[in-house]
Write a sequence for this structure.
């Protein structure tokens, strides 16, 4: 019941070639498995959302604080984001050296930031996403002295 089209989609030159290979095998069942397109990565839409409302800011603050509380690296999230901002497309090995961290634990932490939509992985290294840039801008604005008068 295998068609010529199915054999070609399975990577064979012809139905005859596929049947010839199957004939050389021991008895058993043959299954056809078809995969459809993958769902879009939800992190892509998340990292593009740079307009952070107060609820999102509070949620990010809480999530990052929890990550840091469980980490032996201490307060690493802002340092890591600022380093990626300053050195995009630099290898994880080099970035981890700059921070004095072990490469694999550094990469694991960057993946945590990526899952929150704050960074993007590149062929070599990383860069901040629009959401990551917005988050750092929020932190810097919070650090800025108030211009209130006396």
């Amino acid at each position: 019941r295998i068609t010529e089209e199915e054999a070609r989609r399975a990577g064979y030159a012809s139905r005859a070639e596929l049947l010839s290979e199957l004939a050389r095998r021991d008895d058993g069942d043959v299954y056809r498995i078809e995969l459809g397109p993958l769902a879009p990565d939800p992190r892509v839409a998340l990292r593009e959302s740079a307009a952070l409302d107060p609820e999102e800011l509070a949620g990010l603050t809480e999530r990052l604080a929890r990550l840091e509380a469980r980490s032996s690296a201490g307060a690493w999230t802002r340092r890591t984001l600022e380093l990626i901002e300053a050195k995009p497309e630099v290898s994880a090995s080099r970035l981890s050296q700059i921070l004095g961290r072990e490469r694999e634990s550094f990469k694991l932490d960057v993946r945590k930031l990526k899952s929150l939509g704050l960074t993007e992985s590149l062929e070599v290294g990383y860069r901040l996403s629009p959401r990551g840039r917005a988050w750092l801008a929020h932190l810097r604005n919070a650090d800025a002295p108030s211009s209130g008068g006396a």
Remarks:
- The radius of gyration is 24 Å.
